[in-house]
Design brief:
This protein has 2 domains: about 90 residues; about 90 residues. Helices cover about 25% and strands about 20% of the residues. The protein is built from 5 helices and 8 strands. A hairpin with a 4-residue loop joins strand 2 and strand 3. Helix 3 crosses helix 5.
Length: about 200
């Protein structure tokens, strides 16, 4: 179950995501990146975020804490941008919050080396969830406290947008050619041997 804090202050929009997430403070005295249910990408994107993020954490990957973040649109009345105002008004109620990692940096393969074992585990996990959005163009990883953190799994589980085609998706090989960690020689076989037996119905 996700914790359920309430947003108390809208701080600023974040321009890096296509869905225009926002930085908010909450009544648990923490700061979150809020991803809105009213964004154009739709609620199923947030469902994928939760399922894949929690699965990643259960398998031992570092993922910022996810919460069900309650939003009263009035907290953004002072926001001057009409686009943000419209987004807040369309997103009243429960949204997705991701714990803000202060001081985190976007992953840069020239500045942060990843060993083949760790690279293999991440590539294997992305193949499992069919994550099409961890490429060298947009790594969707952060470096915080000297460690690698995985974020933004909304473009995963493509099949759940069209369940009739799910079986066909399951049979497709995962193309890791453009994966952000491909240059690090990921040891996918070792990752599969360790992680695959842990993906059970109980998990």
């Amino acid at each position: 179950m996700l914790a359920e804090p309430a947003a108390t202050r809208y701080v600023t929009p974040l321009r890096e995501g296509g869905s225009l997430p926002g930085l908010v403070e909450a009544d648990d005295l923490r700061t979150y990146v809020m991803k809105f249910t009213g964004a154009g990408q739709g609620r199923k994107t947030l469902v994928a975020e939760v399922i894949c993020g929690q699965l990643a954490r259960a398998l031992g990957f570092r993922v910022p804490e996810l919460v069900a973040l309650d939003l009263d649109p009035v907290i953004g009345l002072g926001e001057p941008e009409p686009q943000v105002q419209d987004l807040l008004k369309a997103s009243g109620g429960t949204n997705l919050g991701m714990r803000f990692l202060s001081g985190a940096l976007g992953f840069d393969p020239l500045a942060y080396a990843v060993d083949p074992v760790q690279a293999g585990r991440i590539v294997w996990f992305d193949a499992l969830i069919n994550n099409v959005d961890r490429s060298w163009r947009n790594p969707n990883m952060l470096v915080h406290g000297g460690e690698l953190w995985l974020i933004d799994h909304g473009a995963s589980m493509i099949w759940h947008h069209n369940w009739r085609g799910a079986a066909a998706w399951a049979g497709k090989a995962y193309d890791a050619t453009d994966h952000a960690l491909a240059p690090f020689g990921p040891d996918v076989a070792a990752a599969a041997a360790d992680l695959a037996p842990r993906v059970t119905e109980d998990l």
